[in-house]
Amino acid sequence: MQDENNTRETVAGKKYNDSLEEWLNQHLGKIPNLETLLHNFKDARNGQRRNPGHIFHAELVREFYENDNTLKVTAVECKNIEPNTDVDIKLNDDIYIQVWLGKKPAEYTLERNLTQGTNKSVNWDESERPVLKKLKQLPSNTGKCFVLNGVTGISGIISPTIHELCSERKCVMEISSNGHHINVYGKSNFRYSYEARQIAKVLKRPVKFFLGDWDNMQANGRDPIGESAYGINVLQQKYESLWHMSKDELLHYIKRNLKYLDHNKLVNQTLFYIRHKVYWDMLSRDIASQKNNS
Question: Does the predicted TM-score (pTM) go above 0.70?
Fold first, then answer.
Protein backbone atom coordinates (compact mmCIF):
# COMPACT_ATOMS: atom_id res chain seq x y z
CA MET A 1 0.00 0.00 0.00
CA GLN A 2 1.43 3.35 -0.99
CA ASP A 3 1.90 6.10 1.61
CA GLU A 4 -0.79 8.75 1.19
CA ASN A 5 1.73 11.47 2.06
CA ASN A 6 4.28 10.60 -0.65
CA THR A 7 4.38 13.20 -3.39
CA ARG A 8 7.27 11.78 -5.41
CA GLU A 9 7.95 8.28 -6.62
CA THR A 10 11.01 6.57 -5.25
CA VAL A 11 13.01 4.38 -7.63
CA ALA A 12 11.41 1.27 -6.12
CA GLY A 13 8.00 2.96 -6.13
CA LYS A 14 8.31 3.91 -9.80
CA LYS A 15 9.25 0.36 -10.73
CA TYR A 16 6.27 -0.98 -8.79
CA ASN A 17 3.86 1.58 -10.29
CA ASP A 18 5.19 0.88 -13.79
CA SER A 19 4.37 -2.80 -13.32
CA LEU A 20 0.91 -1.96 -11.97
CA GLU A 21 0.21 0.33 -14.93
CA GLU A 22 1.37 -2.38 -17.30
CA TRP A 23 -1.00 -4.85 -15.61
CA LEU A 24 -3.89 -2.45 -16.20
CA ASN A 25 -2.93 -2.08 -19.86
CA GLN A 26 -2.75 -5.85 -20.31
CA HIS A 27 -6.24 -6.35 -18.91
CA LEU A 28 -8.11 -3.73 -20.91
CA GLY A 29 -11.15 -5.42 -22.43
CA LYS A 30 -11.14 -8.11 -19.75
CA ILE A 31 -12.69 -5.94 -17.02
CA PRO A 32 -15.49 -3.51 -17.98
CA ASN A 33 -14.59 0.19 -17.56
CA LEU A 34 -10.95 -0.59 -16.74
CA GLU A 35 -9.88 2.09 -19.21
CA THR A 36 -11.41 4.69 -16.86
CA LEU A 37 -9.32 3.46 -13.95
CA LEU A 38 -6.22 3.39 -16.16
CA HIS A 39 -6.88 6.99 -17.23
CA ASN A 40 -7.24 8.05 -13.57
CA PHE A 41 -4.11 6.10 -12.66
CA LYS A 42 -2.03 7.88 -15.33
CA ASP A 43 -3.61 11.31 -15.00
CA ALA A 44 -1.97 14.01 -12.90
CA ARG A 45 -3.94 15.15 -9.88
CA ASN A 46 -2.88 18.11 -7.75
CA GLY A 47 0.43 18.04 -9.63
CA GLN A 48 0.96 14.38 -8.80
CA ARG A 49 0.83 11.57 -11.32
CA ARG A 50 -0.19 8.14 -10.04
CA ASN A 51 -2.15 9.39 -7.06
CA PRO A 52 -1.82 6.99 -4.08
CA GLY A 53 -5.61 6.57 -3.93
CA HIS A 54 -5.69 5.36 -7.54
CA ILE A 55 -2.73 3.08 -6.86
CA PHE A 56 -4.61 1.54 -3.93
CA HIS A 57 -7.69 1.16 -6.15
CA ALA A 58 -5.66 -0.61 -8.85
CA GLU A 59 -3.98 -2.88 -6.28
CA LEU A 60 -7.37 -4.03 -5.01
CA VAL A 61 -8.67 -4.68 -8.54
CA ARG A 62 -5.62 -6.84 -9.25
CA GLU A 63 -6.02 -8.71 -5.94
CA PHE A 64 -9.65 -9.58 -6.67
CA TYR A 65 -8.98 -10.43 -10.30
CA GLU A 66 -6.09 -12.79 -9.59
CA ASN A 67 -7.29 -14.50 -6.41
CA ASP A 68 -8.31 -18.16 -6.43
CA ASN A 69 -11.39 -17.65 -4.26
CA THR A 70 -14.99 -17.24 -5.37
CA LEU A 71 -14.97 -13.42 -5.42
CA LYS A 72 -14.10 -11.94 -8.82
CA VAL A 73 -14.15 -8.47 -10.37
CA THR A 74 -17.06 -8.01 -12.78
CA ALA A 75 -16.58 -4.27 -13.44
CA VAL A 76 -14.96 -1.09 -12.11
CA GLU A 77 -15.99 2.58 -12.06
CA CYS A 78 -19.72 1.82 -12.11
CA LYS A 79 -21.88 4.96 -12.09
CA ASN A 80 -25.58 5.10 -11.27
CA ILE A 81 -26.28 1.57 -10.09
CA GLU A 82 -28.70 3.74 -8.22
CA PRO A 83 -29.04 7.49 -8.94
CA ASN A 84 -26.01 9.51 -7.78
CA THR A 85 -23.99 6.47 -6.72
CA ASP A 86 -20.41 5.59 -7.60
CA VAL A 87 -19.07 2.04 -7.17
CA ASP A 88 -15.30 1.70 -7.58
CA ILE A 89 -15.23 -2.10 -7.77
CA LYS A 90 -18.12 -4.45 -8.52
CA LEU A 91 -17.67 -8.10 -7.58
CA ASN A 92 -19.87 -11.05 -8.38
CA ASP A 93 -22.84 -11.75 -6.09
CA ASP A 94 -23.80 -8.03 -6.16
CA ILE A 95 -20.91 -6.93 -3.95
CA TYR A 96 -20.17 -3.21 -4.33
CA ILE A 97 -16.98 -1.56 -3.08
CA GLN A 98 -16.03 2.07 -2.60
CA VAL A 99 -12.25 2.50 -2.23
CA TRP A 100 -10.78 5.07 0.14
CA LEU A 101 -7.13 5.63 1.04
CA GLY A 102 -6.54 7.95 3.95
CA LYS A 103 -6.55 8.45 7.67
CA LYS A 104 -9.43 10.25 9.30
CA PRO A 105 -8.79 13.54 11.12
CA ALA A 106 -9.30 11.74 14.43
CA GLU A 107 -6.30 9.54 13.72
CA TYR A 108 -4.01 12.49 13.03
CA THR A 109 -5.03 13.97 16.39
CA LEU A 110 -4.61 10.73 18.31
CA GLU A 111 -1.32 9.93 16.62
CA ARG A 112 0.07 13.32 17.65
CA ASN A 113 -1.18 12.80 21.20
CA LEU A 114 0.55 9.41 21.40
CA THR A 115 3.85 10.39 19.79
CA GLN A 116 4.20 13.96 21.09
CA GLY A 117 2.57 13.61 24.51
CA THR A 118 -0.12 16.22 23.75
CA ASN A 119 -3.74 16.00 24.86
CA LYS A 120 -5.73 17.59 22.04
CA SER A 121 -9.39 16.58 21.90
CA VAL A 122 -10.87 14.96 18.79
CA ASN A 123 -13.57 16.63 16.71
CA TRP A 124 -15.74 13.57 16.04
CA ASP A 125 -18.09 15.36 13.61
CA GLU A 126 -15.14 16.40 11.47
CA SER A 127 -13.59 12.94 11.65
CA GLU A 128 -16.72 11.26 10.30
CA ARG A 129 -17.18 13.42 7.19
CA PRO A 130 -14.83 11.47 4.87
CA VAL A 131 -16.33 8.06 5.64
CA LEU A 132 -19.89 9.41 5.45
CA LYS A 133 -19.16 10.71 1.94
CA LYS A 134 -17.88 7.28 0.88
CA LEU A 135 -20.86 5.46 2.39
CA LYS A 136 -23.28 7.77 0.56
CA GLN A 137 -21.64 6.92 -2.76
CA LEU A 138 -22.70 3.29 -2.34
CA PRO A 139 -26.23 2.13 -3.29
CA SER A 140 -28.71 2.18 -0.39
CA ASN A 141 -31.36 -0.20 -1.68
CA THR A 142 -29.47 -2.93 -3.48
CA GLY A 143 -26.30 -4.98 -3.22
CA LYS A 144 -23.85 -5.80 -0.44
CA CYS A 145 -21.86 -2.65 0.16
CA PHE A 146 -18.39 -2.12 1.59
CA VAL A 147 -16.10 0.86 2.02
CA LEU A 148 -12.54 -0.47 1.88
CA ASN A 149 -10.46 2.06 3.79
CA GLY A 150 -6.70 1.77 3.46
CA VAL A 151 -4.91 3.61 6.28
CA THR A 152 -1.21 4.26 6.53
CA GLY A 153 -0.91 5.29 10.18
CA ILE A 154 -2.24 3.87 13.43
CA SER A 155 -5.01 1.41 12.59
CA GLY A 156 -8.44 1.96 14.06
CA ILE A 157 -11.06 4.40 12.83
CA ILE A 158 -11.52 5.19 16.54
CA SER A 159 -15.04 6.59 16.14
CA PRO A 160 -17.48 5.28 18.74
CA THR A 161 -20.46 6.30 16.57
CA ILE A 162 -19.19 4.92 13.24
CA HIS A 163 -21.93 2.28 13.23
CA GLU A 164 -24.59 4.99 13.15
CA LEU A 165 -23.39 6.04 9.68
CA CYS A 166 -23.70 2.50 8.31
CA SER A 167 -26.78 0.38 7.57
CA GLU A 168 -27.83 -3.25 7.48
CA ARG A 169 -26.29 -3.49 3.99
CA LYS A 170 -23.32 -1.07 4.34
CA CYS A 171 -20.17 -1.34 6.45
CA VAL A 172 -16.60 -0.04 6.56
CA MET A 173 -13.63 -2.42 6.30
CA GLU A 174 -10.38 -0.86 7.44
CA ILE A 175 -7.08 -2.19 6.06
CA SER A 176 -4.00 -0.93 7.84
CA SER A 177 -0.59 -0.92 6.17
CA ASN A 178 1.12 -1.76 9.48
CA GLY A 179 -1.44 -4.18 10.91
CA HIS A 180 -2.17 -7.88 10.55
CA HIS A 181 -5.96 -7.77 10.57
CA ILE A 182 -8.94 -5.97 9.00
CA ASN A 183 -11.43 -4.08 11.14
CA VAL A 184 -15.10 -4.23 10.17
CA TYR A 185 -17.33 -1.45 11.49
CA GLY A 186 -21.11 -1.37 11.14
CA LYS A 187 -24.51 -1.78 12.73
CA SER A 188 -25.34 -4.77 14.89
CA ASN A 189 -27.82 -5.96 12.21
CA PHE A 190 -25.31 -5.83 9.33
CA ARG A 191 -26.27 -8.66 6.97
CA TYR A 192 -23.07 -9.49 5.18
CA SER A 193 -20.47 -10.65 7.67
CA TYR A 194 -19.85 -13.74 5.55
CA GLU A 195 -19.02 -11.59 2.52
CA ALA A 196 -16.74 -9.44 4.69
CA ARG A 197 -14.83 -12.59 5.64
CA GLN A 198 -14.58 -13.56 1.97
CA ILE A 199 -13.14 -10.15 1.09
CA ALA A 200 -10.65 -10.45 3.95
CA LYS A 201 -9.70 -13.91 2.71
CA VAL A 202 -8.80 -12.48 -0.69
CA LEU A 203 -6.68 -9.83 1.06
CA LYS A 204 -5.06 -12.58 3.18
CA ARG A 205 -5.95 -11.14 6.59
CA PRO A 206 -8.26 -12.18 9.43
CA VAL A 207 -11.10 -9.87 10.45
CA LYS A 208 -12.17 -8.25 13.70
CA PHE A 209 -15.84 -7.23 13.84
CA PHE A 210 -17.03 -4.08 15.63
CA LEU A 211 -20.76 -4.17 14.96
CA GLY A 212 -23.07 -2.00 17.03
CA ASP A 213 -22.70 0.22 20.05
CA TRP A 214 -19.20 0.49 21.54
CA ASP A 215 -20.56 1.04 25.06
CA ASN A 216 -22.30 -2.35 24.82
CA MET A 217 -19.06 -3.96 23.66
CA GLN A 218 -17.22 -2.51 26.63
CA ALA A 219 -19.98 -3.66 28.99
CA ASN A 220 -19.39 -7.17 27.63
CA GLY A 221 -15.66 -7.04 28.30
CA ARG A 222 -14.42 -5.88 24.91
CA ASP A 223 -12.07 -2.97 24.24
CA PRO A 224 -13.01 -1.55 20.80
CA ILE A 225 -10.22 1.03 20.68
CA GLY A 226 -7.46 -1.37 21.74
CA GLU A 227 -8.76 -4.21 19.59
CA SER A 228 -9.12 -2.03 16.50
CA ALA A 229 -5.57 -0.73 16.88
CA TYR A 230 -3.82 -3.95 17.90
CA GLY A 231 -6.22 -6.80 17.16
CA ILE A 232 -6.12 -7.79 20.82
CA ASN A 233 -7.89 -6.66 23.96
CA VAL A 234 -5.20 -4.65 25.70
CA LEU A 235 -7.34 -4.48 28.85
CA GLN A 236 -6.63 -8.15 29.50
CA GLN A 237 -4.18 -8.42 32.36
CA LYS A 238 -1.20 -9.73 30.40
CA TYR A 239 -1.47 -6.94 27.83
CA GLU A 240 -2.32 -4.21 30.30
CA SER A 241 0.75 -5.03 32.39
CA LEU A 242 2.94 -4.71 29.28
CA TRP A 243 1.40 -1.33 28.53
CA HIS A 244 2.49 0.06 31.90
CA MET A 245 6.06 -1.23 31.69
CA SER A 246 8.95 1.20 31.29
CA LYS A 247 11.32 0.73 28.38
CA ASP A 248 13.88 -1.13 30.54
CA GLU A 249 11.18 -3.36 32.04
CA LEU A 250 9.81 -4.17 28.59
CA LEU A 251 13.27 -4.98 27.22
CA HIS A 252 13.89 -7.26 30.21
CA TYR A 253 10.54 -8.98 29.59
CA ILE A 254 11.46 -9.54 25.92
CA LYS A 255 14.87 -10.95 26.82
CA ARG A 256 13.40 -13.27 29.44
CA ASN A 257 10.10 -14.36 27.82
CA LEU A 258 10.12 -13.50 24.10
CA LYS A 259 13.40 -14.97 22.96
CA TYR A 260 12.20 -15.07 19.33
CA LEU A 261 12.43 -11.23 19.26
CA ASP A 262 15.91 -9.78 18.67
CA HIS A 263 16.51 -7.92 21.92
CA ASN A 264 19.69 -6.24 20.66
CA LYS A 265 17.89 -4.62 17.70
CA LEU A 266 15.30 -3.07 20.01
CA VAL A 267 17.59 -1.50 22.60
CA ASN A 268 17.95 1.78 20.72
CA GLN A 269 14.29 2.04 19.71
CA THR A 270 11.65 4.17 21.45
CA LEU A 271 9.28 2.74 24.04
CA PHE A 272 6.39 3.44 21.62
CA TYR A 273 8.10 1.37 18.89
CA ILE A 274 9.03 -1.51 21.20
CA ARG A 275 5.54 -1.73 22.68
CA HIS A 276 3.98 -1.89 19.22
CA LYS A 277 6.52 -4.48 18.09
CA VAL A 278 5.61 -6.73 21.02
CA TYR A 279 1.88 -6.34 20.45
CA TRP A 280 2.11 -6.98 16.71
CA ASP A 281 4.24 -10.04 17.34
CA MET A 282 1.71 -11.39 19.85
CA LEU A 283 -1.09 -10.80 17.37
CA SER A 284 0.69 -12.45 14.44
CA ARG A 285 1.47 -15.51 16.57
CA ASP A 286 -2.13 -15.67 17.74
CA ILE A 287 -3.33 -15.49 14.13
CA ALA A 288 -0.93 -18.27 13.13
CA SER A 289 -2.25 -20.40 15.98
CA GLN A 290 -5.85 -19.77 14.90
CA LYS A 291 -5.03 -20.80 11.33
CA ASN A 292 -3.32 -23.99 12.51
CA ASN A 293 -6.31 -24.91 14.62
CA SER A 294 -8.97 -24.07 12.01
Answer: yes
